[in-house]
Amino acid sequence: MAEFALGIDFGSNSSRALIIDIAEGTVYGSASCTYPGGSEGIFTDPSDHNLARQLPASYLTALETCVKGALEQAKEKAGFSPEAIVGIGLDATASTPIPVTQDLTPLSDLPEFKDNLNAYAWMWKDHTSIKEADAITAAAEKQHPEYLAKCGGAYSCEWFWSKVWHCMNADRKVFDAAYTWLDFPDFLPVALGGITDIAQVKAGVCAAGHKSLYCEEWGGLPNSEFLKSLSPELASLKERLYSKACPADNKAAELCQPWADRLGLPAGIPIAAGIIDAHSGAVGAGVGKGRMVKIIGTSSCDILAEPTQVSGIPEIPGICGIVDGSVLPGSLGIEAGQAAVGDIFNWFVSKACDSDFSKFKQLKAEALNMKPGQSGLMALDWENGNRNILCDQELSGLIMGMTLHTTQAEMFRALIEATAFGAKKILDRLEEHGIVINEIICGGGIAEKDELLMQIYADVLNRNLILSTSDQTCALGAAMFGAVVAGKYAKVEDAQAAICKFKELSYKPILENVKLYSELYKLYSELHDSFGTGTHKSLMKQLIAMK
Q: Which of 29, 122, 295, 532 has CA 20 to 30 A from 477's CA?
């Protein structure tokens, strides 16, 4: 009989469920559901553009909806039954920490906190903790520089400790009410497994290593003395967190009876430890030695996996981190990325153009007929700060070269080109530090749908860009981990060999455009350095302070 795995992917705005045949990866069922509440599932504050929160209950509502939808599709195919699902894998955004009670119930489920955004999930792109992140970086530079060496040289306001610390500083009532905090990828196995004791939580090393300064070299999470130097309360919190984290090929829970009944699945299905969405997507797209996976969506993530036995992998300043086992067990997971890509285009269409999704088609059609440099525009892709390689969330977007004849389509293309130039900065940094990249595989919603952007990226990066046949690589990677924890594959690479496939379509650099973009990239680099590290860096920050 055929056997199946269920992969569930939780992105920034929605959840997706995928049911595959574990022998070849054939899709039997797929469904998605947006998170209810807020604006596209996100709660914001008009008085603070840095705030972005989500309701944990909405994650579970979306999970139930999309899993049931995928099951309904699968039931229509011969050979499938829910009882044949042997494993479940889960991925989610991070760091998206959730304050919970002692029995691991989200505070936002309690009546007294239902309208308090500080008791919600602190979404990955919440940047309210810039000061705390800077303080963590400064303290680590003096006390434990090895902490920063593993995360690119600076701690981010997108990550766990800075957000939790900011909650303490901003809303002591919420901080004191929270017994502990669960990052989103760890919250999911806890919920589906019915786990109510932090001692039973099996944290995923992906979020722990890339977002919470976890590393086996120094015994796990940052030591208590370091945390105490930041705040005694953080040192106390550490005692109520996990002490050990594991790769996603470890079983974190089994599907509990209440959730089995809700979903229409048998109880007891093994559930893999949680993993960050982009890292799961890299697995689903076929990441491996010399093969980088670029996930392009609301933001972007560049993921590599270098075997741990390979010596000479250096610390790489300006990237998100190097974590053992965060992508493929037995390999060093290397992560970099941009804080906004699709979000920039959505901002431009919805805010600057005051239009809806239909505007994209018009702008792309007009931009498609332009040559590189034709508009005379140059942009910086920092509307949501710079994640890598400058690691500065207080930087902001910029478009220069505008005249009275500049059109919306010209600005739109300049923004696409800016994200491509930002991607090249990351690629250059990795290669400068000895990382060999032979192939780039692209995944994510934008990579699947936007031919204009993909061609511009191919031209700017001067690389062939390969596409996975799956349009749900994150959920596919999660499903592979589900198959591994069910014992159907000895290791993830075996599952990849059987399941990962690639499209015949690829994007190849156009020589004429490569030459033009090479010249434009020099100008972008001047602009990048001037506002990112040079004489004009303070201007953006002064404007933010005045705002």
A: 122
User: What percentage of the chain carries pLDDT values higher than 70?
Assistant: 99
User: Which residue(s) pair with 468 in the sheet?
Assistant: 502
322: exposed, middle or buried (Cβ count in 10 Å: 0-12, 13-18, 19+): buried
Q: What is the mean pLDDT of residues 33-44?
A: 96
The total of other beta-carbon atoms located within 10 Å of residue 330's CB is 15
pLDDT digits (tens, 9 = 90+) for 161-201: 999 999 999 999 999 999 999 999 999 999 999 999 999 99
Is residue 169 within 8 A of residue 188, CB to CB? The reply is: no
Q: pLDDT (tens digit, 9 = 90+) per residue, 14-36?
A: 999 999 999 999 999 999 999 99
Give dist(CA 309, CA 306) in Å, integer: 9
Contacts of 442 (CB under 8 A, 6+ apart): 285, 293, 294, 295, 296, 454, 457, 465, 466, 467, 468
Residues ≥6 apart with Cβ < 8 Å to 421: 381, 460, 520, 521, 524, 528
**Max CA pair span of the chain:** 67
Separation of alpha carbons 440 and 519, rounded Å: 23
Strands in 213-366 per DSSP E = 245-246, 251-254, 270-272, 275-276, 291-296, 300-307, 321-324, 331-338
The amino acid at 356 = D
Prediction pTM value? 0.90
**What residues contact residue 360 under an 8 Å CB cut-off, 6+ apart?**
345, 349
Question: How many Cβ atoms are within 10 Å of 19's Cβ, its own excluded?
Answer: 27
Enter the DSSP assignment of 348: I
Q: Are 296 and 446 in contact (CB under 8 A)?
A: yes
Looking up tokens 């499903």, which residue turns up? 479
Residues in the chain: 547
Cβ–Cβ < 8 Å for 72, 154: no
| Burial letters 232-261, b for 16+ CB under 10 A, else e | ebbbebbeebbeebbbbbbbbbbbbeebbe
- The rounded distance, in Å, linking the Cα atoms of 511 and 431 is 22
Tokens 């996996």 correspond to 305
Residues 286-315 have a mean pLDDT of 84
Specify whether the CB–CB gap between 367 and 377 falls below 8 A: no
Distance separating alpha carbons of residues 4 and 20, to the nearest angstrom: 5
The DSSP code sequence of 59-80 is HHHHHHHHHHHHHHHHHTSTT-
